Recover the amino acids of this structure.
């Protein structure tokens, strides 16, 4: 989404508000997602459990910050097959 | 040799069915028991726990779990425990149990734990009621953990937590949030009660390996840390690769 001059500027508290929303919105309910806002761009990183939750991350932020461009760089748990083993003597 | 499969922070939701089971098909080939280090659910609902319980149904090895902070979010931790126990999963909260694995008696004790921080940068039981309650909660959990570990009569003792007992396994997390990720009081309890290995989760950006001041090895098995669905740990490895 393209922002325009009508889009409110982020305050010094906006990143904290986004983090709070991602933790408490039941669609995401994930702590520890890194949020960085530069002008009207929101950058998100960290891990979420499923692809559905990754989509929800972008939805929640878009709803909270209309007019901002959301860069959803969160990762999902796509684990490799096989078992890694640590041997402890 | 005792073989333990461990994972933390599976964060199951109603959208998670089928995401873990494929990785568990051969778990019995590399482990004698499975431990889950808390944050079993996303929002802490019994429905989410039921999805996980079905995923674990029929595993041919004992499964132990502790709850995490997410599992308390909807105030349904008792229901979550009930759902899991109905499916044969042993949910530990200041309790322990001994099972036979690898021909040895393996004691497993666990508790969620709590925060408070680490020596030199920790909360104390002083000041406002809320602050005192915070640290009292950690002290209470640490005391229960110590008693559970001390009560195990076993050849080897495994400790399962959600919160971290040491700083080493938090490296990678922001220093400012360490007090919300664990407490030295848990390590002190482990060193007093005795354990051969400790598993915890909670710190997704942390590191895998640490050790308590008393020399007990600690592993952060949060899935984002180990990068796999679960990891196997062989204790008392005699050099024969049976894992």
């Amino acid at each position: 989404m393209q922002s325009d001059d009508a889009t409110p500027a982020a305050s010094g508290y906006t990143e904290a508000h986004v983090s709070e929303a991602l933790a408490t919105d039941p669609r995401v309910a994930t702590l520890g997602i890194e949020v960085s806002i530069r002008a009207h761009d929101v950058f998100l990183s960290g891990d979420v459990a499923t692809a559905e939750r990754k989509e929800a991350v972008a939805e929640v932020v878009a709803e909270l910050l209309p007019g901002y461009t959301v860069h959803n760089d969160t990762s999902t748990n796509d684990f490799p097959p096989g078992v890694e083993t640590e041997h402890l003597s | 040799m005792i073989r333990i499969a461990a994972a933390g922070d599976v964060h199951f939701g109603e959208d998670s069915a089928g995401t873990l089971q494929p990785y568990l098909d051969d778990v019995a080939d590399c482990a004698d028991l499975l431990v889950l280090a808390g944050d079993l659910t996303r929002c802490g609902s019994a429905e989410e726990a039921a999805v996980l319980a079905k995923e674990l149904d029929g595993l041919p090895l004992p499964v132990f779990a502790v709850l995490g902070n997410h599992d308390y979010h909807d105030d349904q931790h008792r229901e979550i425990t009930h759902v899991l126990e109905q499916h044969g999963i042993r949910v530990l909260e200041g309790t322990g149990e001994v099972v036979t694995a690898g021909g040895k008696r393996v004691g497993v004790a666990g508790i969620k734990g709590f925060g408070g921080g680490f020596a030199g940068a920790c909360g104390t039981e002083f000041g406002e009621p809320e602050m005192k309650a915070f640290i009292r909660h950690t002290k209470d959990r640490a005391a229960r953990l110590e008693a559970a570990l001390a009560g195990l009569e076993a050849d080897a003792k495994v400790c399962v937590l959600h919160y971290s007992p040491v700083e080493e396994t938090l490296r990678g997390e922001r220093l400012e949030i360490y007090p919300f990720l664990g407490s030295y009081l848990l390590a002190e309890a482990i060193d007093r009660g005795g354990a051969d290995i400790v598993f915890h989760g909670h710190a997704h950006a942390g590191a895998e390996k640490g050790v308590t001041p008393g020399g007990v090895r600690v592993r952060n098995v949060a899935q984002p840390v180990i990068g796999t669905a679960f990891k196997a740990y062989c204790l008392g490895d005699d050099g024969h690769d049976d894992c």
Remarks:
- The mean pLDDT of chain A is 90.
